[in-house]
Write a structure and sequence with these properties.
This protein is mainly α. Helix content is 45%, strand content 0%. It has one domain. The longest helix is centred in the middle third of the chain and has 13 residues.
Length: 77
């Protein structure tokens, strides 16, 4: 296994946050729950969390906690 670091520039994170903020939400049918996909209220709450509360820097600092290990595989030839 080879250790690795996740590097994402501030400009990329700022762009993501801006795009999440500008999400154009669809109209929704009332009381359909999960039968027609993800309920809009749930998706809005999740998006707000990603935009305003999720600490991408902290998650990137510990990729082993969120990503599977990477193995270097070489073919003998």
């Amino acid at each position: 296994m080879r250790p690795f670091t996740v590097r994402v520039g501030d400009d990329v994170l700022d762009d993501l946050r801006d795009r999440l903020h500008r999400t154009r939400w669809p109209h929704t049918l009332e009381s359909v729950g999960w039968s027609r996909g993800v309920p809009l209220a749930y998706l809005r709450e999740l998006t707000e969390h990603w935009r305003d509360a999720y600490d991408r820097r902290a998650a990137g600092a510990r990729p082993a906690d969120v990503l599977p290990p990477a193995a270097v595989i070489s073919a003998a030839g």
